[in-house]
Structures are given as structure tokens and as C-alpha cells.
Specification:
Blueprint lengths: L2 H12 L5 H12 L4 H8 L3 H22 L1 H20 L8 H19 L1
Length: 117
């Protein structure tokens, strides 16, 4: 998994468990693509201070994921939902009545909603 994407995902799951300032620093860096200098200026800190905050924040997020595994479980569930959707789409609908086809379409739409959210 791409490191920036991974940290962004970890922030989505565990960000509220960090301090407000640490969350904001990580959010600016990973989700908004701010440089260390831009973040340092925003918080009136040194670039080294920002770098250290990012390093500690990443370590905290990775530690939480190691202990709780929410992102891993989420990814597994998403893969399972995608597999189910592929099976549903492969069902031959030629001999189905219109109500069953509509019911199947509603199930597919529900799974797509789960995958995309």
C-alpha cells in the first residue's frame, strides 16, 4: 500500500485518538500535501519540530493499527464485498423475472454503496 495513502487511512480511523495539534500536523502533511516548512510556519514551530511530530504521530498510528487492526479488517471486508459483487454481476439474468432482477440490482447497489463508503 502506498505510504501516504496508508497514513491517510490510518488518520481516518485513529486520528481522533491523537492530540488535536498532532492530528492537524499529520492532516496538513498527508491529506493536504503541505511541506514541513509550510506547516512549521502555520504553527510557528521549527521544521525539525514538525518532522518530529510527524514521526511520532506516524508511530502512534501504526502502533494503534498493530493493536486494533481496524484498517486491516476494513480492507478485508471491502475485498469480500467486491468479490460478492462480482458473483452477483455474473448471475445469468435471462431466466429471471423482472421483480427478481430488480431485487438483485438493489442488492448490487447496496454493496457498491458499502464499497465506496
Amino acid at each position: 500500500m502506498d505510504k501516504i495513502y496508508e497514513i491517510s487511512l490510518l488518520l481516518d480511523f485513529y486520528g481522533q485518538l491523537l492530540s488535536k495539534k498532532q492530528y492537524e500536523i499529520l492532516d496538513l502533511h498527508f491529506n493536504n500535501d503541505y511541506s514541513l516548512g509550510e506547516i512549521a510556519e502555520h504553527f510557528n514551530m521549527s521544521r525539525q519540530g514538525i518532522f518530529d511530530n510527524i514521526k511520532r504521530g506516524k508511530a502512534s498510528l501504526l502502533n494503534m493499527e498493530e493493536k486494533l487492526g481496524l484498517v486491516s479488517k476494513f480492507s478485508e471486508q471491502k475485498l469480500k464485498a467486491e468479490k460478492i459483487l462480482r458473483y452477483l454481476k455474473s448471475i445469468n439474468k435471462e431466466n429471471m423475472n423482472i421483480d427478481d432482477i430488480e431485487y438483485l440490482k438493489n442488492i448490487e447497489d447496496g454493496i457498491v454503496d458499502i464499497i465506496e463508503n
